[in-house]
Amino acid sequence: MPIRLDRRSADFASQFKAFLATKREASQDVESAARAIVNDVVARGDAALIEATRKFDRLEIDASGLRITADEVKAAVAACDTATLDALKLARDRIELFHRRQLPKDDRFTDALGVELGWRWSAVDAVGLYVPGGTAAYPSSVLMNAVPAIVAGVPRVVMVVPTPDGKLNPLVLAAADLAGITEIYRVGGAQAVAALAYGTATIAPVAKIVGPGNAYVAAAKRLVFGKVGIDMIAGPSEVVIIADRNGHPDWIAADMLAQAEHDANAQSILITDSAELADEVERAIASQLTTLPRAEIAQASWRDFGGLIVVENLDQATELANALAAEHLEIMTADPEALAAKIRNAGAIFLGAHTPEAIGDYVGGSNHVLPTARSARFSSGLGVLDFMKRTSMLKCGPEQLRALGPAAVALGEAEGLGAHARSVGLRLNLQ
Amino acid sequence: MPIRLDRRSADFASQFKAFLATKREASQDVESAARAIVNDVVARGDAALIEATRKFDRLEIDASGLRITADEVKAAVAACDTATLDALKLARDRIELFHRRQLPKDDRFTDALGVELGWRWSAVDAVGLYVPGGTAAYPSSVLMNAVPAIVAGVPRVVMVVPTPDGKLNPLVLAAADLAGITEIYRVGGAQAVAALAYGTATIAPVAKIVGPGNAYVAAAKRLVFGKVGIDMIAGPSEVVIIADRNGHPDWIAADMLAQAEHDANAQSILITDSAELADEVERAIASQLTTLPRAEIAQASWRDFGGLIVVENLDQATELANALAAEHLEIMTADPEALAAKIRNAGAIFLGAHTPEAIGDYVGGSNHVLPTARSARFSSGLGVLDFMKRTSMLKCGPEQLRALGPAAVALGEAEGLGAHARSVGLRLNLQ
């Protein structure tokens, strides 16, 4: 049964705290297995990659078969339904438009002393994009990860995707093609992550790896972190919906099930000031579940992690939403903007009844890779900045050094760092 | 002996590759010890914190003694040398000025369809700043970590600092006071990290933890990552200096030793097109080492990890610098700006002979917390953005949903996510 909490009940605080602390991640301990695979790829390169692909994907290839050719991509695109391709193009264009606005500006200024300061942003040299195979192969995720990298100006974006039993969703290749990715390898798992991080004879190494994957992929990403950069490790997805008594139960139920159908560990929570609406949504969910293709998964998620929270007023709703720090927050109230202004912690906010999260998942333009498991308290969704880095710049002439030098010498000496003090003092003829 | 490489030698490429791959991190395996401490603090709160403080810092306190009082801070400030305090104030003001320029802008726009999009930046609710005790207690680091958090608008910045045998560098408290931190606890190690992440009766939990620490602190930060955000795990520090034949050997030697004196694992590398300069710098280093307070540390760093690389021209120097991706890059050539324009990978660039890194360490204004161990290929120095997060915003009305909805339905169906499609379709009366 999904949990039902009432803000007026005497033990609400402790119940909500327990609900907040619910662990949803299935912690599979696969680190040692991932480590063995990574070490093997580091030691033996392509040979290890080919062997792991034979073992895990049941696919026989040699080094020359690792790369997916331009002809194969062309054939995949031709195999796709035109309406779906058009939808992907619309998504690509809108994601690009949104992310272009995230391109950061360099800064350079001269202060009152004449010191020149500033910073410069530059794209990461090479990025690897992991794309899962099989049922979790989502072309929309290819776009959400690749387009910001391309917009950032990353000169080399490499995609890896496993093809278990040789099978690959043609829409994944079509999305890569639409994003402008031309270097694609049919490898997956920890072995693909290792190849991207350390390089093999066939796959040149990258500087950063992004994209979702299973427990082995996540473990391998943690292991190679430091050697390369990685994005966040995504946890199970979640939505919080704040609605008042005018909320449409069927729409809300559909949105909650859209979250729940991702994964049995996904979480859907309604916060409302109307106990009646909570009842109606619960009934609508039960009803819609009967005709949902992925009913089993959605049902498990709703049963184990779903929540209906009734509050006395919408201010209480924003407080709880800030504590929940949801990946997705839908606001369906009379004045969603006023309520959104009080939200500090959320990956993305969907305003008003006509903005279901699914629009943002696909074609809104904003990124659907968002911080999960309450990490919106301290992190942001994927964006252009994740594919760039900032180099700070400092320039003094003799006069500026004379003005600032004595303070630097004083601090170097106070910290017991004599060579720091000397490096300034020598230039000032103090030493 | 420091390594000496010549770009013209036949085996330069393999020698440079080996040099690049040199491991400098001393990998102390302290994870299980850190895990036990973290678990104890989670289970027993203040009692565990007090017990660990007694054990590791040889300090007897009860819960009421955990917090450092305003009077203690005032007394510490009074105990500091005025010139050093003035230098710290100058540093604080300049760091603040620089970082204010990093405050990001929100964005909100309406596209051709009438869809409202954008994002909003907000400060992290609460940040914990770890400050090491003992000899590595650097007041400059307190400013470099605290000022960007305050500039970001973080409402609660908490500092923890161990006081082994009850001792504490008064300049650390003075720096905290100058930065505006009022909540300070005399705890350190993995226990302090655990208290910040999980909270105890005395210390309310934070959402993100930053700041340098020993191996136990680093291990604890990795363990609590996810529960809270953490900054990068800093490795040993490094400098690369590019100089032409007009470089001043004494100044370059002093800068290289300023890096080397931090840590036996630090690294100083000179890249020059002048073999004579390389010789002169090597001699100057040997000479300056004889009078350096921290000669033993600097000597070990220079001997084990130092490098002199002679190239044929400065273009080769930029290539190597991009591969080294140094935390600090000093450029002392006739036209440092032209050379800097070719640098993609560096934490910070110091332009010209009158900008020793020590200026940037203390009073330049830019941040001295920078990516180490080649991670400047994919990450940036500490800044205001590290204390903020971005929430994306999306708003459709009925018309916009009609325009975008069919594509979302198509993609939801193509990905086998029926509830996604339904959440849009219901609103369009398609289902």
Could you walk me through the main structural features you see in this protein, from its secondary elements to its overall organization?
The structure is a homodimer of 431-residue chains. Chain A is α/β, with parallel strands linked by helices and 431 residues long. Chain A has 3 domains: 31-230, Nitrogenase molybdenum iron protein domain (Rossmann fold), CATH 3.40.50.1980; 235-377, Nitrogenase molybdenum iron protein domain (Rossmann fold), CATH 3.40.50; 396-425, no CATH class. Chain A has 17 helices and 14 strands. Chain A has helices spanning 12-20, 31-44, 46-57, 70-79, 82-100, 139-152, 170-179, 189-198, 215-224, 249-260, 275-289, 295-305, 314-324, 336-340, 357-362, 398-414, 418-425; strands at 3-6, 107-110, 116-123, 126-130, 156-160, 183-185, 208-210, 229-230, 238-243, 267-272, 307-310, 328-332, 348-351, 388-395. In chain A, the strands form 3 sheets. Chain A has a 6-stranded parallel beta sheet with strand order 1-11-10-9-12-13, sandwiched between helices. In chain A, strands 6-5-4-7-8 form a 5-stranded parallel beta sheet, sandwiched between helices. The first copy, chain A, is globular and about 80 Å long. The mean pLDDT of chain A is 95. Chains A and B meet through α5, β3, α10, β13 and α15 of A and α5, β3, α10, β13 and α15 of B.
